[in-house]
Amino acid sequence: MIYLHNSLRKYVSAILNFFNEMKIQYKNSEGDVIERNIPVDFSIREKSDIIDEKTQESILSGNTNVLPRAYITWSAINRDDQRMRNRNNKINILRKENSIEYQYNSMPYSVVLDYHVICRGMTEACQVLEEIVPYFNPILNLDVYDGDNLDEPTRVPVQLLDANLESADFDEYSNNNITVNATIQAYINIFSPVKTIENVKRYKLSFHGNEEDREKTIGYDVHKGKVDPETRKELDKITALSKLQIGFKTRVLEKGENTVYTYTQKHKLDDIRSSNWTVLQPEIEIVQMRGNSIKIKVPDDYKGDVEIIFEVEDEFGNKQACSRLFKV
């Protein structure tokens, strides 16, 4: 089943909540100052479609139940390469009673949104513009719980790119409707799915030193320093796993023929039952494979890195692998 954080929806909701606090002031017939919120919608429609739901007579008559009215439209979303981080780092690690939850690093993006307010005249338009601009000095920070397993909110910077005034166009009427246009950019993160690892319920230990003490510690029945053959075989299999350590001796490849060598620690190469070499780049020719070495040929016109994987298996079925990305 697909896992979604609904991060985009949370970011848009936070921006809508901020702009929902915008207000205007006007005087009624008795000269009293009245203050009211500017209703805001989120839409991808053009502004002419937004006000089509209202009659032009209502819009042009100065009806405060119709105008001013605001709406936010989605303009663009772009990857933010300047904020890129190692995608393999684990973040938001949450320990529970029987499991551990974590995520890999998020992907940074920037979202561009347009904020429009249709006002009744220049007085209201100037009020709206004067109320918006001071918040972005130089940026506005919004706290958003954008991930499902976060203990604290993410601080999302929002930048005001530009703001301007535009006269509304109604051919059949003379009017004084002014639209305030503001373009904002939010620096957001798109999170990967939350992964869960169950707690370890069974594990095996191996010890070096006195054999009898080691076997007692592990929990095997020992009588006069000896164990039965089946228990001995199982113990050898466990202790062999800790000895199966491999790595690469070769560090750099050159163009032409190269021989790549590996090494083993605390383990005889003769005890390895099978080994296998893999070269991930198809352009690289494998000339020869012999135990702990492989001979390859790198073309003269080859550009890029070469990744080689070496896998071994011992007589007990223990497997180990190592890989390296070689520079050419």
How many structural domains?
A: 2
Structural class: alpha+beta
**CATH secondary-structure class of the largest domain:** Alpha Beta
What is the overall pLDDT average?
79
Q: Which residue ranges are poorly predicted, with pLDDT under 50 across at least 5 consecutive positions?
A: none
Q: How helical, in percent, are the residues?
A: 10-25%
CATH topology of the largest domain: STM4215-like
Task: Walk me through the structure.
It is a single chain. The longest helix has 15 residues, at 229-243. This protein has two domains: 7-196, STM4215-like; 244-326, Immunoglobulin-like (Sandwich). Strands 3-4-7-10-9-8 form a six-stranded mixed sheet. A four-stranded antiparallel sheet has the order 12-13-16-15. Strands 5-6-11 form a three-stranded antiparallel sheet, with no helix packed on it. The mean pLDDT is 79. The chain is built from six helices and 18 strands. It is elongated. It is α+β, with helices and mostly antiparallel strands and 328 residues long. A hairpin with a 4-residue loop joins β17 and β18 (319-326).
What's the short story on this structure?
By secondary structure, the protein is α+β, with helices and mostly antiparallel strands.
